[in-house]
Amino acid sequence: xxxxxxxSLAAAAIGALLAFPIAPAFAKTVAECNTEYAxxxxxxxxxxxxxKDFVAACRSGTETIPATAAAPNAPVAYQQPPxxxxxxxxxxxxxxxxxxxxxxxxxxxRARCPTDTxxxxxxxxxxxxxxxxxxYGGTKQGxxxxxxxxxxxxxxxxxxxxxxRRRRHRSxxxxxxxRNRVSGK
Length: 185
Fold this sequence. Notes:
alpha+beta; elongated; about 10% strand; single chain
């Protein structure tokens, strides 16, 4: 008998819960309801509903947005024709090319100009550097090119005389130090 009473009470409680409307699982925020009101303001006002009442109904999930009857003689809004499709992608003239005659790697440039000298062009300054020098492939903005293409583009060679002098001075000093070590001075 005791089990029957417990089961009956549980069934009655479940029935009572199902009889009353339950708030939606995902209630809208005030900001969402305000946005919805702003989007349908004319229709809501035409139905003689205040903003406060609409937001309260929206929050509980029972809002209804009245349909507005369009005027029968209302002119149809002009619709702009769709934009033309963009032109198809045109591949660059050389595989791996950065700008006209420029390449991302030294090997790509050597394949393009096997008989010419490959240089690194600093695209910001318009100065090109030869292989083995300090700035070859080392500036922030640059590309590998054939020297003839770089000259044709108006770029100029860097002044490498100072760098060559430093190397000679360094090697002369290294030779002198090595001799001193051998002779014991």
